[in-house]
Design goal:
- Helix content is 47%, strand content 17%.
- By secondary structure, it is α/β, with parallel strands linked by helices.
- It has an eight-stranded mixed beta sheet with strand order 2-1-3-4-5-6-7-8, sandwiched between helices.
- Helix 4 links the parallel strand 4 and strand 5.
- Helix 8 packs across helix 9.
- The protein is elongated and about 60 Å long.
- The two termini are 24 Å apart.
Length: 235
């Protein structure tokens, strides 16, 4: 059976998911209830899939680290309500699946089978939202700066932490304002809290790092899945 590491803090959902996977006879489940321990579990366990509940405080930085630790492990986000821009950025980091918590069991199994084969899975409703979301790729340095800004750091403090001048910080901020459409630090902080983390609490604590987001096409089927190596659509 293929091993899944489920990262969640919700006992009933853990119990239900574990029972469904065991009944399928295809997957076994290891549970991680503390997102801080997820890196260690991914590193130590031979898991085919990581299913990460975004309510746990999953950040883009963590997803990037998991991809580096276990490049052969498929990452899937388990979502309720999450910003489309966060999903867009997560896909750019190599996340292969986005699964709604209210999905039917057979749809959940279809998703897990696809990602276990290295194929992408995304529900059509969410794909539409991504198509309508303006992609705003930030560089590593820009994302670090935004993370520090959301913590309330001033230009001088940011410059000190990054080892650059205040003038350079101002140049970075000007470029970020232009990219995001924010008019000031307050609007930029709101943008970061809303779009650059899976939950608003963790956004103010992490300077997330990502690569350019992947654009998701608007296909007609209810679910999307494709092989990332060939980009061919699988019905």
């Amino acid at each position: 059976m293929k091993r899944i590491i489920l990262c969640s803090r919700q006992p009933m959902m853990i119990a239900g998911f574990t029972a469904a996977m065991e009944a399928s006879g295809e997957f076994s489940v290891s549970v991680c209830r503390d997102v801080r321990l997820l890196r260690e579990q991914v590193f130590s366990k031979d898991a085919k899939i990581v299913l990460a509940d975004t309510a746990c405080g999953i950040t883009l930085e963590l997803l990037s680290e998991l991809r580096a630790i276990a490049p052969a492990t498929s990452l899937v986000l388990w979502v309720d309500t999450v910003a489309p821009e966060f999903i867009n950025q997560a896909v750019g980091l190599g996340v292969l699946g986005v699964l709604s918590k209210d999905s039917e069991i057979h749809d959940c199994l279809r998703c897990l089978r696809h990602v276990a084969e290295g194929k992408f899975w995304l529900e059509h409703e969410l794909s539409n939202k991504l198509v309508l979301t303006r992609s705003i790729p930030l560089t590593v340095r820009q994302r670090q700066l935004v993370g520090m800004l959301t913590q309330g750091l001033k230009n001088k403090e940011i410059a000190h932490r990054l080892g650059i001048t205040e003038g350079t910080v101002k140049v970075y901020l000007s470029n970020i304002y232009r990219k995001t459409g924010a008019n000031d630090r307050f609007e930029l902080a709101l943008f970061a809290l809303k779009n650059l983390s899976s939950d608003q609490v963790s956004a103010s604590k992490h300077a997330a790092i990502s690569s350019d987001p992947v654009e998701i096409p608007n296909f007609a089927p209810k679910f999307l899945s494709f092989d990332r190596s060939s980009a061919s659509v699988v019905q």
